[in-house]
């Protein structure tokens, strides 16, 4: 398996909970997995770190170290922190350019990011928009001769699925790499309150995938929603 994958998340924890299995699975199969975290999540996603006399720089350093550890466990090839701040995240033309430059450099076949709608966390909506703007810029020959073949965009499952109108059309069996995803989750003790929740999500999606899959033994899964139509040469394998 060749090509590469680009994951764009709002906060440093998002990639672990939502698509850590997909990242580990593809990295294990020889795909270069590249990760962009637009913020450290220091304001709204690091409650456990704000203890005693904690300072902002210390919280950010802690979350960065957690993300680096988790990314290493998952087999990430490159990791880029944009440090935009969060809750709320500002728009950033510079981040759009940087993501676009990354797309051109790695020639990713697929981009994994947040879904378009998430009324409980507008940072996720902002990230989705910036990722699509970067994709559009990377496709444009007027921005440079290394323009890309348009990559598919897959939105990973949000924290509150129904609230976001998320309707998955892809279920990925991550059973063989669950131990790596679980280890990556545990590398983020600042958000240990999410460990059990996302284990239950993975079990639920695994049960659904197992009912529809062609092989027995599916236990853990992740759900995705594709944004653009797939181009196929047949409707049956």
From TrEMBL:
The EC number on file is 4.2.1.83
Species annotation: Achromobacter insolitus
State the Pfam families in the record: PIG-L (PF02585)
Q: Name one GO molecular function term.
A: 4-oxalmesaconate hydratase activity
**InterPro entries attached to this UniProt entry:** GlcNAc_PI_deacetylase-related, LmbE-like_dom_sf
Per the record, the gene is galB
- List the keywords (alphabetical): Lyase
At the top level, the lineage of the source is Bacteria
**Record-given protein name:** 4-oxalmesaconate hydratase
């Amino acid at each position: 398996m060749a090509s590469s994958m680009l994951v764009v998340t709002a906060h440093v924890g998002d990639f672990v909970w939502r698509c850590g299995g997909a990242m580990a699975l593809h990295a294990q199969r020889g795909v270069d997995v590249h990760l962009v975290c637009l913020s450290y999540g220091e304001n709204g996603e690091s409650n456990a770190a704000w203890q005693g006399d904690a300072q902002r720089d210390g919280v950010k350093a802690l979350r960065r170290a957690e993300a680096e550890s988790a990314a290493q466990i998952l087999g990430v090839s490159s990791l880029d922190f944009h440090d935009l701040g969060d809750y709320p995240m500002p728009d950033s033309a510079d981040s759009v350019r940087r993501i676009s430059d990354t797309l051109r450099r790695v020639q990713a076949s697929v981009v994994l990011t947040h879904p378009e709608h998430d009324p409980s966390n507008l940072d996720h909506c902002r990230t989705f928009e910036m990722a699509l703007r970067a994709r559009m810029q990377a496709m444009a020959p007027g921005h440079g001769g290394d323009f890309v073949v348009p990559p598919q965009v897959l939105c990973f499952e949000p924290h509150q699925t129904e609230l976001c109108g998320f309707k998955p059309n892809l279920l990925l069996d991550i059973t063989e790499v669950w131990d790596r995803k679980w280890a990556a989750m545990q590398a983020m003790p600042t958000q240990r309150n999410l460990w059990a929740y996302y284990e239950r999500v993975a079990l639920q999606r695994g049960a659904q995938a197992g009912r529809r899959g062609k092989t027995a033994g599916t236990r853990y899964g992740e759900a995705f929603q594709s944004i653009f139509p797939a181009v196929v040469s047949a409707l049956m394998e």
